Hints:
Strand order of the largest sheet: 5-6-7-11-10-9-8
Strand content: 5-15%
Radius of gyration: 23 Å
Largest sheet: 7 strands, antiparallel
Order of helices and strands: EHHEHHHEEHHHHHHHHHHEHHEEHEEEEH
Shape: elongated
Helix content: 40-55%
Amino acid sequence: MPHLRACLGGALCALLLLAAPASAQSNPEIGAAPDTSTLRAIEGQVSQIRGLEALAEPDLQLLDHASLTTYLANQFERDYLPNERESDQKEFVLLGLIKPTDNIVQIQLNLLSDQVIGIYDSGTKSLFVVADQAGFGPAERMTYAHEFNHALQDQYYDLNKIAPKHPASNDRSLAVHALIEGDAIMLQTLWARSNLSQDDLIQLARVTASSDDILARAPLVVRTELLFPYIDGFNFVRQAYRQAGNDYAVLDDLFKNPPESTAQLLHPEKYRNHVHPVDVQLGDVAARLGPDWRTVGSGVLGELDTRVLLEQWGTGHSDAIHTASGWSGDHWQLVEKDGRSAIVVRSTWETPDAAQSFFSVYSRGLGTRFDSAMVEESSSTRQALTTPITATDVRLVGSDVLTVIAFDRESAGAIVDAVMTSAPLPALAPGCTSPPHPGGPAPGGATGHLHCATDTPAPPESDRQDRHRRSGQLGRRLR
Length: 479
């Protein structure tokens, strides 16, 4: 799903408006289009706060909302590739995160058109700020500060390099965008405190108070991924800033060594202690299944989307956070035969207890989702459900959990066998003993949760380039 370098409206402005009085009085007129001196003043203020001097002046374009909608649609066409859209749509449907009748592209376009009030385009080095009625009031000035900070980031850290449009891991891409947006949100917050009046903040509160209806109606996964960079990214950056004695220079180190997973954003101590996500292997599942199968997409769910997966089907927010916090790594592949799709997810957890917790909670959620399914097996280590159009197979082995959601029992079994052949799990392959490296990578970077006498080396996953790249650049890249 795409990530934009953009500034959101109501949801994000709320971070600034916590101190604003609830009772609004006057309704200040929207300011006129900015003159050069106004822009240069904001740029100077941002540079002083951020500690970075501009290396070049970015181009500014003021847009109305209709023009913004057109711009976003063009961005989708340019950056959100057809194979990425297909993979995102089918992945979310198979995992039960959206309805089969939902259109993930249209949902994102509607949401972004409603929420985005500014964008920085690192390709053209241009800033776009929404200013209806040719206005440049407090919302526009704050947005310009936010977007100009993105321009500084790009000039010093090369945003296209650290956050490519088509990354190998959506989870890592989301984490990097959280750093980028967290920096921009903290910058705009500090800027607003020093440069906006109380009347300005009241006006912002009034403008944004009713702008979140579309956001509230969006699927949980879309809403969560959209807001994560701004809210959790802000918390991550703010914590680092405060621990450094309110020294913005600490962000230079963060940009030189960006976080690798949403887990590192959600648990900053994992970033500080260099707890890296495990590179989980699946092998080439479609190739193992035979010539009638093709790979539609692949990627990493990460801790954040794993949490959403649990919440989607009945797990409370706090319980989902607790369960997903034991995540150590995962990899998924979406395969298809004769137009029918299936997904396999292999996740690895910090401890066997953490894996057991996820297995139990997720199995319960699948039972809720497929409440009329025939229960083929329901044990402490395997759940298998069958409906006329779906077959699931979830297996717990040590610190690993294997999940298959397919279109019939035969295909589900074939996928399990394909994974067993290329990247065997102890419970699936004979001759397996207790894992020698529970909860962490084995020497040489292997997954380290298996030790099987009959193991054969897994073929290299040359197609790990996550063809699904929901990093299509819109959602996360909103600025």
